[in-house]
Amino acid sequence: MRRRRHEHDETLTGEHRLGDAGQVLLACLFLAVWGADTFFLHWTTHLNGSIPAVLRIPAGIALLILAYSLSTTGLAVVFGERREKPEVIRRSVFRIVRHPVYLGELLLYLALLLLSLSLAAAGVALLAALFLHVISRYEEKLLLQRFGDEYRAYMRQVPMWLPRLRPAIVKK
Fold first, then answer.
1. Disulfide check for 125: which of 14, 107, 109, 157 has CB 3.0–4.6 Å away?
2. What residue spans define the domains of the chain?
3. CA 13 to centroid of chain Cα atoms
4. What's the N-to-C CA distance of the chain in angstroms?
5. What is the rounded distance in angstroms from the CA atom of residue 166 to the CA atom of residue 169?
6. The pTM is what?
7. How far apart are CA 153 and CA 123, in angstroms?
8. For 154-164, how does the pLDDT look when each residue is reduced to its tens digit (9 = 90+)?
């Protein structure tokens, strides 16, 4: 069996065994449904006339940029930095949300949905969001087992998905 490049890194805690395959499968399904409905079938894109393209396109592009930034920065922090010992990562985008890579993936779906309001693709995006939530909860259980109170404190300070407008008040 072929090992992924980061499986041997002892500073990483782990991920759901179906996480990567599920993400690829759902991304392919989303792109197939979104592409077919947007460019060929037009079965569920009737809302496009309700929201002008002049609003949807800039918002979609902004979300694409944000999605790219969150994902690439998060991946660079996790896999690009050398750590001597395991730690709860609290820097960079991990100060804003606990799952910036998954959030970037969700924002990619949202951006494409804004570009073409395909209700069929929105259904697949909702399924992908549920899947990402389930695997992130699983990964958080692993992190809690490994880091205990340190990760629990991180969970209280940093939101899972949506950044806080104000810093969290830490109770001691």
1. 109
2. 19-157
3. 18
4. 47
5. 9
6. 0.87
7. 34
8. 999 999 999 88
